[in-house]
């Protein structure tokens, strides 16, 4: 059985997705409001300062720090190449010559007449931010980025690893409780978003990484396998930056848990379509959920008419407390009056129908709404 759920996951065929795409530092926004963009479209660019390398020129040349200005062969601010002579000094009446070279390709940024050290900065590191999802630019954040809006199917997960990928969806499982094993993955799945059913084994994820599968979406994953895969315990840290070739999205929780049927059927109906997947997860304040986003084509019907919003009769819910932990049903009654629990506390309750006449009454705090 899984360990925990976070209330309020969204699983819906159609919703309005807004993504803020922001540079890590000020730069240039290359898109404008109204632009139609694809997931791979670059919307903003900047350059991070290159790595700094420090060399003690005074020691290398055998001169005093305040003498460096007279022995430099390049000016401060000039570009340099690795191994290029940047300073030269002579001693013993010119009989011996000492030289200092640049340790990297880059720029001679500064020379200190106090410490005798020179600072060499490597070339700037270009950074580009893409739209991540197909959609429309609806807002510009000056010098920082954009906000992209898209009508899309959205599946939020409980836990994930690694970052953003965009690729077609490939269904591997035939049913939502079918485990994902290494033998299910083949060369044809390279570059695809593979959807399993129940728990994905550690061997399966390693095989996916070996095949360079873009992402694996599954119902469950063993918590101990996360540490085995990464070599460390993620704890309550923010995930999404793991150096993995394959992104992981777990839709239900840790353990042998089948994917919710509604989630599985939604993903199955989207097989072959390109999706944007992100494994980034944060379970502390400012919750970040891993996700699968499949933008609608422009001619697709985009309506939320059948969506159930909030906690209401007919809303799909998942129980998040024992003894019904993990069971999925629909709200069949929402009594107005308070209900006295065995602990003698009075709480609001609801009735959950699991089908075939199997109903229970539980506190409203003991369920999460699966938004569709």
Short description:
The protein is mainly beta. The protein contains four helices and 27 strands.
Question: What descriptive keywords fit this protein?
Answer:
eleven-stranded mixed sheet, elongated, mainly beta, OB fold (Dihydrolipoamide Acetyltransferase, E2P), disordered N terminus, Glucose Oxidase, domain 1, 372 residues, 39% strand, 3 domains
Q: Major β-sheet, in short?
A: 11 strands, mixed
Corresponding CATH architecture of the largest domain: 3-Layer(bba) Sandwich
Cα Rg: 28 Å
* Helix content class: under 10%
The CATH class of the largest domain is Alpha Beta
Number of domains: 3
Look at the structure and give the mean pLDDT: 87
- Count up the helices: 4
Oligomeric composition of the shown chains: single chain
Shape: elongated
* Structure class: mainly beta
Number of strands: 27
Strand content of the residues, in percent?
35-45%
* CATH fold descriptor of the largest domain: Glucose Oxidase, domain 1
